[in-house]
Amino acid sequence: MYGKGRIIPALILFLGVMTSPMWYKSGDLSKLPKPEKPKDYKECVAPTAFMRTSHMVLLNQWRDNILREDGARIGKTANGTEYVRSLQNGCMKCHSDKKKFCDTCHNYASVKPYCWDCHLQPKEAM
Amino acid sequence: MRILSPFIAVLALIAVGLVAAQVPGGQALIGIVLPYLAFALFLGGFAYRVLYWAKSPVPFRIPTTCGQANSLPWIKQNKIDCPSSKLGVIARMFLEVFLFRSLFRNTKAEMYEGPKLVYGSSKFLWLFALMFHYCFLVIVLRHMRLFMDPVPGFVAALEFGDGFLQIGAPVLYMTDAIFLGAIAFLFLRRVMLSNIRYISLSADYFPLFLIFSIALTGILMRYVFRADVVAIKQLTHGLATFTPAIVAGQISPVFFIHVFLVCALLIYLPFSKLMHMAGVFMSPTRNMINNSRMVRHINPWNDPNIKPHSYAGYEDEFREFMKEGGIPVEKE
Q: Complex ipTM, two decimals?
């Protein structure tokens, strides 16, 4: 073998970088996100599976529909319960604690939605 | 045929991934067993190829000289394109690895009436190759959010910069769009230019189709058939920490196609032209100092017992025979 002095360290470095997620300080699987569900309300605006994957799309649709197309501000769930199509007045009415609901999954999956660039952040102390 | 067979192969891979995601046990096979197998083959194959290459002796300096070599003091040397020092080689390799300098030199030859052959500069290959590779890098690094917890700062910074335009929700990543465009260019270049099409093989088209499908399934998973990221991270982070588990029924089949294609790429990579990833560092035509005229290079496999034999010594040994044969000698 030729050029041992450079090739072997470079190869070890490469393997180290490639396997970095395996020896990265993580490993605590017990702290999976557990978003706190509201106690007083049982029904959301859409099924859980849809909300888990597509709530951001729904929020965008509400925004576009209400602000740009003059759509209705009140929506109805499958069971006929009325709700306000709004992040602060709708979603946050039941899911009142941003830290215990929104942030749990968002931090876990490293998602930084820009909702709060414009919307007022709920006071954490409340 | 050289385009069709790799296209069918990639379609077959997609079909296998799609079917396997639906049959019982298939999700565990594609989501857990195959990634470990593919990753082990990737690392093992990669190391094997590099060590195999390292076994080839490079007895002499063979750099491609793209400029004036070190010569007389009043002749200006091109220190990067024909380096005679370590620093020059480091600069050359840096520009090659990070900026694809040799692609920048790409030329096109065109035939005009006459017939007249005209050479011109052609920077599109360089530009799109650069975009393709850097987008690929950013995309791979962004995926580290699914394998690391807590997510490192640089990954979050990349995501922020990549989604800077804040188009839609989930935000559009610029690299996704540029990446698809760049692959499309690299493919069209092979198809449209008759001289490039002539030298293109299945092994050139297959990685393009495969990487395009990987990008496409990833983009579909983000923007169209949205997947449950938290459930996916439970699986992928579990893979990284050797405690994988699949949350049944929460991950969409697109994810499994995506993973299956990525595994195919990982397995394919060490045994294909994609090994230029390591090869660029090991190219003797790039990484050697052009000092053949300054330093004596001794062939590493020379037998030390065989001493150099000068002409004078040769003549001393055979003088009588040479005289007999009528061959002129320098010393009578």
A: 0.88
